[in-house]
Design brief:
Blueprint lengths: L5 H22 L6 H14 L3 E5 L2 H11 L6 E6 L5 H8 L3 E5 L10 H14 L3 E5 L11 H11 L2 E5 L7 E2 L2 E2 L6 E5 L13 E5 L2 H11 L21 H33 L12 E2 L5 E4 L3 H13 L29 H9 E4 L7 H12 L1
Parallel strand pairs: 2-3, 2-4, 4-5, 5-8
Antiparallel strand pairs: 1-9, 6-7, 6-10, 8-9, 11-12
The structure holds pyridoxal-5'-phosphate.
The site of pyridoxal-5'-phosphate has 15 residues, from helix 3 and helix 4.
Length: 372
């Protein structure tokens, strides 16, 4: 069994994907070909944002967004500890200071109260300047923007939504990647919308930021060819990846998001009496980057994972430790920082196979193994 079955997806979409790749090769327009602009237009329409700028990956997307927000040395950026490395790594790359925040254990998303406490603590200490908050749409569920956006407004912070896992989710009718002053996503192959390599995108409604981001992505370009008006990056989405994403986005919008929600509902109905199943708050839709249960203990999780493996069922631990405990951030001396929900999640989470092409039999096979 595949954890995320990209092979079946390819078989379904093969004609369009192969034709798209062939078109790019026949045209030899490998960089900034017309498929890139078409994809950006479709992504902006899907998320209902004014601008979408594609780039090389989701980590670059975050870093470039922070640069557009003028984040620099001395600034504090608030990030959940329970996330992938990129969310905080980019803060350190810009010499700013990541401040780690706890999560809500029912959604695994940033806890607004913990955010508020962290902002007040940093403000009180007076060493760093609170600048940006990066809520992550973890496992496909949009962060608690109903509570986080007013907090950001209250303290004058910009919001950068890390929608690497959240693309396709919603709160009421508002799409993931439309909540931040700037939002980003990743097209890493296993993401809800993935390409066949690395890729990413940046979303905003702000014209000035969009122009700045476009420039940063291409060596700080100006209006004329070989005019460089700032130090930028080389961060572009390959035309081939855009050609692959065009039919994948159509399938994603037409049926894949609905299908992962079918899979999640099936899992939940069978597992709810025995496991802590993932919670989707009223009015929210998840794009199910992961379907993650909370085991009773770390020891039970190890046993479960081993027995699933024996039956050929892959499972993953996202994430085994909080970022504040990663050696990479040791210099920030966060060892004694107490983030109890992050600690609990790291000890007990287990992510199960999840993708739009899982059959009812596949799901029952996983559930039978877990219920035994
Ligand atoms: C929450 C989160 N942010 C950022 C990234 C970075 O994306 P990429 O791998 O495309 O650089 C990822 C995934 O890999 C992620 O899960």
């Amino acid at each position: 069994m595949e954890f995320r079955d990209l092979k079946t997806q390819y078989q379904k979409l093969r004609n369009d994907i192969d034709a798209g790749i062939a078109d790019v090769i026949n045209s030899s327009h490998y960089i900034s070909g017309p498929q890139v602009a078409e994809l950006e237009k479709n992504l902006a329409a899907y998320t209902k944002r004014t601008h979408c700028i594609s780039c090389a990956n989701g980590t670059d997307a975050l870093e470039i967004a922070l640069r557009a927000m003028n984040v620099k040395k001395g600034d504090a950026v608030f990030v959940p500890s329970f996330t992938f490395m990129s969310t905080a790594e980019v803060v350190s790359l810009l010499d700013a200071h990541p401040v780690f925040v706890d999560i809500d254990l029912t959604t695994f998303n940033m806890d607004p109260d913990s955010l508020k406490n962290a902002i007040e603590r940093v403000t009180h200490d007076g060493i760093w300047t609170p600048k940006v908050v990066i809520p992550v749409d973890i496992f496909g569920l949009p962060a608690d923007f109903d509570k986080i956006l007013p907090i950001a407004t209250q303290y004058g912070l910009n919001v950068l939504e890390d929608g690497a896992q959240g693309f396709g989710g919603k709160i009421r009718e508002k799409m993931a990647c439309s909540f931040g002053d700037i939002s980003t996503t990743s097209f890493f192959p296993a993401k809800p919308l993935g390409c066949y390599g690395d890729g990413g995108a940046i979303f905003t409604d702000n014209d000035e930021w969009a122009a700045l981001i476009t420039s940063i992505c291409v060596h700080g370009k100006g209006h004329e060819k070989y005019e460089n008006i700032r130090i930028g990056r080389n961060s572009r989405l390959d035309t081939i990846q855009a050609a692959i994403l065009l039919p994948k986005l159509r399938a994603f919008a037409q049926y894949e998001v609905a299908e992962v929600n079918r899979v999640a509902a099936h899992y939940s109905s069978r597992l709810k009496n025995r496991y802590r199943i993932p919670t989707v708050p009223e009015g929210c839709l998840s794009s199910w980057a992961q379907y993650t249960i909370l085991c009773e203990s770390s020891a039970i999780r190890s046993k479960l994972q081993a027995s699933l493996k024996e039956q050929g069922i892959p499972s993953m631990i996202y994430y085994p430790r909080g970022l504040h405990q990663q050696q990479a951030f040791a210099a920030l001396d966060y060892k004694s920082l107490d983030l109890p929900n992050t600690a609990t999640a790291c000890e007990r989470v287990l992510s199960l196979p999840m993708h739009p092409y899982m059959t009812a039999d596949n799901i029952d096979f996983v559930c039978d193994a877990l219920l035994k």
